[in-house]
Amino acid sequence: MSIVLLYHRVSVPVDDAFDLAVHPDRFAAHVEYLTKLGGTAPLQDLVESRVARGIAVTFDDGYADNATVAAPLLAEAGLPATWFITTATLGHRRFWWDRLCRALLSSPIPDSIDVAVGGRSLWLDLRTPDARRAALAFLHRRLLPLPPERIESTLADVLDALGTPPSGHDDITMSIEQLRQLASLPSQEVGAHTRTHAHLATQSADRQRDEITGSVRDLERLLHQPVTSFAFPFGGPGTVGPLAPRLVADSGCQVACTTLPGRVGRRTDRYHVPRLTVLDWEVEEFAARVSAALGR
C-alpha cells in the first residue's frame, strides 16, 4: 500500500487560521526525511500501482511559496511532486478566505457588524480575538457552498461593513511566470484544481463543467502541455458530489484526489484518491504520521 501527502503552503504567514502553512525549516526536514526513506513517486505511477509501496507529494491551491520555496527544494532533492493549481487566482489574486481572514484578524474593525449571507441577515460579534475567530469560521462555512459570484459579492459587503478596503491582488498566490518556472523543474507535474476553488457538489452541472474542464484547458493553454491530474477543492465528505468525477474523466484527467484520509492500493478508485493532510509538524511527528499511514 502507498500514501499521497497533501500540503498547501510552505511559509510563515501572519495568521494561519485554517492551518494551511508548514514552516520552511520544518518542510526542509520533511524533504530530508522523505529522501532518506527512499524518495517519492510520481502520483500517477503510485495510483496505477507501478510502484508497489511508495509516497507521493501533492500541493493544493497555487500559493506563490509553492513556486519560490517548496518546488525548488523538492526538485533539488530529486523528489517528484504534483501541484494542483486554481487558475483564476493566477496573477497574484488572493483567495477569498485569505481576504476574509486578513480583514477580520489583522486590522482594526468595529465591535460588531450586520451582514446578509446566503439570504439571511446576521449580526456578528467582533469585540474579542476569540469572537473574531468564531466569526471567521462561521462566515467561511456560510460562504463556502455559494456560487463564486455570490461569494465575491457577499465578501465585498462584509469588507464594506468592516471598513476594510478591497484588496484582491498581492504576491500571496502565483504569477503565471512562477507557474511556468515551477512546471519547468525536473519531475514536477502540474494538475488542475478548478478555476475558482468552487465547492463543486453545490454548483450547477454547467458550473461544475466550467470549473473542471475550464481549469484543465486554462493550464494546457498556459503551459503548452497535457494536464492529466486533478484535485477536488475541499475534497471531503459532501463537497465533491457524483457528477464531478465523471467530468474530471471527460476532461482527460486520469487521476483525481480528495482530502479524505486513506491508503492507495490496486483497488483504489483513481477518481477518489485519498490523501494525508500534512500540518506544521516537527520532523519526528511527520515521520510517525507517515509511518502510521503506511501501516508500519
Structural overview:
- This protein is an alpha/beta fold.
- It folds into two domains: 215 residues, Glycoside hydrolase/deacetylase (TIM Barrel); 67 residues, no CATH class.
- It is built from ten helices and eleven strands.
- The radius of gyration is 19 Å and the shape is globular.
- 43% of the residues are buried.
What descriptive keywords fit this protein?
41% helix; two-stranded parallel sheet; five-stranded parallel sheet; TIM Barrel; 296 residues; alpha/beta; 2 domains
Blueprint of the fold:
Layout: E1 3-7, E2 9-10, E3 21-22, H1 24-37, H2 43-47, E4 55-61, H3 64-76, E5 81-85, H4 96-105, E6 112-117, E7 120-125, H5 129-143, H6 148-162, H7 176-184, E8 188-192, H8 205-223, E9 229-231, H9 243-250, E10 255-257, E11 276-277, H10 283-294
Parallel strand pairs: 1-4, 1-11, 2-3, 4-5, 5-8, 9-10
Antiparallel strand pairs: 6-7
Helix pairs in contact: 1-3, 3-7, 4-5, 4-6, 8-9
CATH class of the largest domain: Alpha Beta
Cα Rg: 19 Å
As residue ranges, the low-confidence spans are none
Number of strands: 11
Number of domains: 2
Structural class: alpha/beta
The biggest beta sheet reads: 5 strands, parallel
Quaternary assembly: single chain
CATH-defined topology of the largest domain: TIM Barrel
Shape: globular
Averaged pLDDT: 95
In short:
The chain has 296 residues and is α/β, with parallel strands linked by helices. Helix content is 41%, strand content 16%.
